[in-house]
Amino acid sequence: MAGVEQWVNLPKKAGFVEDEISSQERLDAAHVECSFEKANPADFRVKTTPDRGNLAYTAAEMGRNPNFRLRVIGRATNDGAKNVKLQHDIFLPAAGGNEYKVEAKYKKKTVESGKTLKARRKLFFQVMRMRSITAGPTAMLVRAFWQPDKKFFIKMKQVGPVAEMDHTRNLDDSRASHNALISAAARKWKLASRKPFCFAVAFVEYICAPADIVVRQRMHINVPSKLTARTWTGEEMTIQLREFLWFGLNPADDRAKRWLVDGKLVFKPDGAAPGVQEAIRFNRDDVAVAGPDHGPHGGKSRVKVRIREGAINRSRFWERAGTWHVELKLRIADNWSGGFAYTQINLLAIATRAFWKDKTRAEMAQVINHEIGHKVGMVATGRGRLPNAPPRLYGQNRGVNDQDHRGPHCSKGATWDATKPRGQRWSGAPQCVMFGSNGISNRGGRWRAAPAVFCADCAAAVRKLDLSANTLRMQGFQYTLDEI
Fold first, then answer.
1. What does the alpha-carbon distance between residue 352 and residue 135 come to, in Å, rounded to a whole number?
2. How would residue 442 be classed by pLDDT, with cut points 50, 70 and 90?
3. Is-contact 206 297, C-beta < 8 A?
4. Domain ranges of the chain
5. pLDDT tens digits for range 176-232
6. What's the longest Cα–Cα distance across the chain?
7. How many CB atoms are located within 10 Å of the residue 266 CB?
8. How many CB atoms lie within 10 A of CB 251?
9. Topology, domain 4-121
10. What is the CA radius of gyration of the chain?
11. Residue 443 burial (CB count, 10 A)
């Protein structure tokens, strides 16, 4: 029988027999069994011949990981009645798309016509979304990892309908925020029987962490005398920020005015000696969010500060002129993320909005493929059970070559210049889904988005990935959601 698919990473269990997998024989090792009469068992052997188009592992790779080697385990028996039974288990190397011709031979004669085994891999995923959130696309995940033209042959299969989780407006950097998401996902998890070959993609609203900044602004004012103006309504100042306030991401934080950390107000009279100034009592109620929304879902980048009548001493007879100094410590929305994968848990969190705007389907697809790429071992570093590294790997040495991005990534199409200010060090057009950001803003503000597919440099490593249970457990699939 020619041309059968062997799903090399899945164990021989009935639960995996479905779709294109017709029986347990198509899982894990291929089993070969032949019986002949009047033959000497010592003269029998099974020959496994790699196809000329196969992707070969190096000696170093095979030395690091036994699943990178072709292994044949078997025996021939004689029951005493001149009836020889030949049994072999053939463990194909992990690489997707490789093909092997298997033949049974007696002495120099082929006695069993060969079958061709085609190596395939398979993983399963479940889609979840927070209540009131529309789930993003996963079709590109399926296409990017199957890729018959590149012979990746990693089938990503979605199992079950989209599950609905409890809604949280923003996933920030607090432990409570992450624990809430993990717990919500675990309650909806349905793939325990397929572990560790499975993961969840959870679509959330925002993923953003706060940071504190200090802003200062001053304004020259005139404080009228008590005689010339019995009523003085005070003064008002509007401060334009370059960042967005921590406002509109968490209703409880908005009610607590968490975006306003502290403030200091000072009045310096004209002509006063150096260092002479008058402190103005700081009142949190006198500082408010101002200005239009940045996007369709909010986003504020202005604050309005006022001083009321009586906050500055008024002269009875003369107007007092001086400079009003404002110093505010503000909490801003600092670290936006399109998504991430939990390091040890089989869970991806994908944001559907950022900067108070909806993310496009293409943006979400890129993040999904990037994050699951990390989970399965990309970008390969040539260490442990991983294939050799592609030529444009960076970031695998933490604290040494991170290049503003955390973790191993691919720089194909992009150029790094450490001499430039942060935010301007990358240029070019990234050509790989495993670039460390979702794109590059070049000179003139032209945006070059990273693709949702692997580049030609990374293709060999993707084909060679070992997705067996033991290797997945050692990498990004240590725990499944039912084990949390």
1. 8
2. confident
3. no
4. 4-121, 211-334, 384-464
5. 999 999 999 999 999 999 999 999 999 999 999 999 999 999 999 988 888 776 677
6. 128
7. 15
8. 10
9. Immunoglobulin-like (2.60.40)
10. 32
11. 7
